[in-house]
Design goal:
256 residues; mainly alpha; Heme Oxygenase, Chain A; disordered C terminus
Length: 256
Amino acid sequence: MTALSIGKGITLDSAEAMEATLRTIGATRYHSLHPFHRLLHGGKLNKGQVQAWALNRYYYQSTIPLKDAMVISRFRDRNTRVEWRHRIEDHDGDIGTEGGIERWLKLTEGLGLDSAYVESTEGILPATRFAVEAYVHFCRDRTPLEAIASSLTELFAPNLHEERISGMLKHYDFVNPDIMTYFSRRLTQAPRDAGFALDYVKQHAKTPAEREAVCNALIFKTNVLWVQLDALSHAYVDGHIPPGAFVPETDIAKAS
């Protein structure tokens, strides 16, 4: 088992100590801290760069139900499966109801992207694909406890969503409230989901080794999110777009 890399002298001798460590991981590693988000929320990107972010993030959003179906398949406990499956409905929607994927497509369409192109995922960055698929594989191959723990980034999502809504509406004249409904809806969904996952790991991680595995699962997930922004920054801020990836119509200029 890999050692925690968030500091020396960490003791995980209780559920409370584990929760404190999880919150430290979020405070120091969550992708809200990435420079790309500061550019995005501060109005420092051009429309093409915002399009590239939304296009690539669609692959992550549209894969979440696949990941959650993988998590459900790990559990024989019916109550856990019932609790977890509403996450799939949140993103896929149901007959006659809109889900998070549809809301994300409203965002990309509102930004001027063709929905068929977005859904094809043809133009996403290789690093986006690799990172998202690694997340699915993690939930498939690691323990069920770690699969649930990897979702705990949701503990820190509401603050990021609030910052995104206010920042993008303030700074971009091509953004309006109608295309930001994905984020406003997640303000209530994410805390509910995070509360269940946190209670689950606190109850089921009974040994220091299991608590370490929970913390490392969260570190892994923060890395999945962080590396996607690294790739976006390298391609669309620094201007190194890889072959086959989306090329905005607007000039790619380094934000300052």
